[in-house]
Each structure stands twice: as C-alpha cells, then as structure tokens.
Amino acid sequence: MQISVIGIGYVGMVTGACLADLGHSIFFVGRDQKKLNKIKTGKSPIFEPQLDNLLERNKNRIKTTADLSDAVKKTELTFICVGTPSQSDGSVDLQQVKEVTRTIGNSLGSDNKYHIIIVKSTVLPGTTEKLVIPILEKESKKKSFLDFGIASNPEFLKEGSAVYDFFHTDRIVIGVNDQKTREILVQLYQPLSAPIYSTTIRTSEMIKYTSNAFLATKISFANEIGNLCKKMGIDSYDVFEGVGLDTRINTHFFRSGIGFGGSCLPKDIKALIAHGRALGIDPQILNAVIATNDEQPMKMIDLIKQHMDINGRNIGILGLAFKPDTDDIRESRAIPIIKALLKEKANVIAFDPVAMKNFQSLFPGIRYANKAQDVLNASAAVLIVTEWKEFENLDFRGKTVIDGRRNLKAQMTASIYEGVCW
Ligand code: UGA
C-alpha cells in the first residue's frame, strides 16, 4: 500500500519504518527539512534501537516530503502521528491535529480514490468523531465512511523497544465504523499475526488512555507498597515476584523505584484527570497515582540526607534519560532530583550514555562527565536514576550509592547502599 505518515517523532518514525519493512511504500511528512533529509539517507532523526537498520534497508520504499497535501494525493492511507502535548491545566493541546486535519481535508476534496485517515496520535474519546471528522468533511465537502474512511488505531509501543514492540505486539486495536476501512486495516496488520480487536472509534480511543492509566497505576501501587516494604526491611522486588505469579496480576510493570517519566504516562493520566473533571468526575485513584509519582523521586533526596550533609558536596547522577535505551528526557525523574539537589546546594556531576546533549539544554550549569566511572571518582555519593545496562558493570566499591532503579552490582559492592524500595 501507499501510506503517508504525518509526524516524524517517535510514533511516526517507528510506525512508518516498520510498515516499510512489511513491504509498504511510505511518505514521511514533516516540517523540519533537516530531519527529512536525514531520513532520506537512511538515518533516524530520533534515537531508537533498530530504527536506523529499518530505514537503511527499506530506503527504496521510503520518501520524505514537507508537502502534506501532495503526500495525501499520492497515497491510499494517511496516519496522523503528530504530538498531542499537555497544556498547563493537563488538558490536551490539539493544535497540530487540527492543523494537519485541515490540510488532509483540503487535499481529499480533489482526490477521487477512497482514502483512509488513521488517527494514531493519542486523543481523548470523542476527538476523532467530534473534531477530526467535522474538519475533514468541511474542508473536503465529502462524507466520512462514504467518500473516505477514518479510523482510530492507538499505539502501544514503548520507547527503547518500540521496533520490537511493533512486530511483537500483544494486540492491535482498531476503532472503525465502516466495513471497508476495517477490511483494509485488517489486511495491513495481518502479517503481524497479533489479535486484532476491532471496536468503535470512541472505545478505541478510550482503550489507549485506559491502558496507560492502568500501567501508571500499577507503577504507583508498586511504589507505595515499595515504600512500606523499605520501612519494614523487606525487598519489594521479592514481594512482587511472589505476587506476580498470580496470573491475574502478573510480574510485568511491577518495578518499584522512583516512578514513571516519559512523554506518555504522565501526560495521558493528567489529560484523563482533566477530562474527567470537565465531565464532573474527579478521578480519585488517578489523582493519587500522580501524587505518589511526584513524591517518589524525593525519596532519593531523603535517603542521601540520612547519610550526609549534601551542601557543597559533589553528588553524582547516573542516568538522565526517562528510561534506558532512549535519549528522551521528557518528565525524566532526573529533573526533579537534580532540581532538589541544586536547591540543597549540592554540586551535581552527571552522566548518561545518550541523553546528556538533551539534558544540557535544560541544565547547562551542572557538570557532565565523559564516562560513568568519572562520576563515581568525582562524587561523595552517587544516585542511580536510570537503569542503563552499562551501569551494572561499574565498580562501586568504597562508594555511597542511593539506588532508584535496583542495580544489583551496586547493591552487592557499594560500601553504603540504599535502595528506594528495597
Ligand atoms: C508507555 C507505555 O508503556 C506504552 O505501552 C505506550 O504505547 C506509550 O507509553 C505511549 O503511550 O506512547 P513509554 O513511556 O515509552 O511507554 O515507556 P515505559 O516502558 O512505559 O516506561 C515509562 C516510565 O515508567 C519510565 O520512566 C520507567 O522507568 C517507568 N517504569 C516502568 C517503572 O518505574 N516501573 C515499571 O515497572 C515500568
């Protein structure tokens, strides 16, 4: 199939590159010419394992353009993968969705084939029906489900393993109202041999929010139990291993520590809370999920202060990315932790294998080390904030370590060791 992918962030890049690998022709549509040029040479503008490989080996099937209208005319399917950031009150900013939808609608007006528009951006239930479809119909002067198809198809990819997740997904969710669109999407995803759950557009949008809300809830729950375990001298990892053997609960996403960051879980939970409030429901559990998550990184500060006065001391930070295998620092737990350390007048020296450049624009004033060992050598105490694999090979002997992510080597070798929830 000929497919346009609008948005060259992590969702668009992964979706487009993986669909190209399934044999489809992809038009990546973006505004940043530099990034588009990079894609053309088979290189990804974002850091994501496996992505460069896919772009390189499917170069002949991949085109790039800044002209969305032209891409829509030359293709049969258009994936909307633009960002839906949070506004200050937690609600979703739909500016980019509106903008691209207007252009698509306009382009559909002079397009005689049955084009399908697929909303992959995370949008609240009702957005496709109440916002996207009316704009498309107005701009194109055509009728949805009759002259063009529309679907919701949320993504469940995790940064750092997004390519793997695409090809090994647990399920594919499609929200559709017409048979023709359903058949084409089923055909598109057939090679993945994952169960395809077909439902209404609104339900599909809600499945995305509910999935992220549940995952975030599981993490905050793990942290709350983890905090209790710490006080009782119990290792919460052992507890969750035992609890997770119950298949109703399972062991996945049960890692206690310093909470969830990233561009999705915090943003989506806050959006759902804001939406609930607008509907007259203040979601108590979700409020608590966010409150626990905001408090959790501060446990590291409390623990280190139990061992030393940090005023004027060199404190090392291992890991700045919100999770390993990504350079993404959005909502990284390193941000509140470093802010708190600076407030306490500590001198921060940090290292991350790939996220330092991004972090430097946020915190230009702290020291950055060339390698992890330099952080250990230069610091009175070290805080492990991201569980990069390479940190498991460090020599922590003689060091004071506060561990937010459970580094077994540090646990075994550091002279003073404190885990946040163990
Ligand atoms: C999350 C979801 O896991 C994906 O299914 C979803 O598609 C994606 O959001 C999205 O909406 O786009 P992502 O944010 O990439 O994926 O990363 P996660 O692996 O979910 O990690 C999020 C945060 O939770 C990280 O800071 C991680 O350290 C933390 N986490 C994760 C824990 O603290 N404990 C865990 O057990 C798991």
Primary descriptors:
single chain; 422 residues; alpha/beta; 8-stranded mixed β-sheet; 6-stranded parallel β-sheet; 17 helices; 14 strands; 44% helix; binds uridine-5'-diphosphate-glucuronic acid
Q: Topology of this protein?
A:
Blueprint: E1 2-6, H1 10-21, E2 25-29, H2 33-40, H3 51-57, E3 62-65, H4 68-74, E4 77-80, H5 95-109, E5 115-119, H6 127-140, E6 148-152, H7 162-167, E7 172-176, H8 179-189, E8 196-199, H9 201-232, H10 236-244, H11 265-278, H12 284-295, H13 298-307, E9 314-318, H14 334-343, E10 347-351, H15 356-362, E11 367-368, H16 372-378, E12 381-384, E13 400-403, H17 408-413, E14 416-419
Parallel strand pairs: 1-2, 1-4, 2-3, 4-5, 5-6, 7-8, 9-10, 9-12, 10-11, 12-13, 13-14
Antiparallel strand pairs: 6-7
Helix pairs in contact: 1-3, 4-5, 5-6, 9-11, 9-12
Bound molecules: uridine-5'-diphosphate-glucuronic acid.
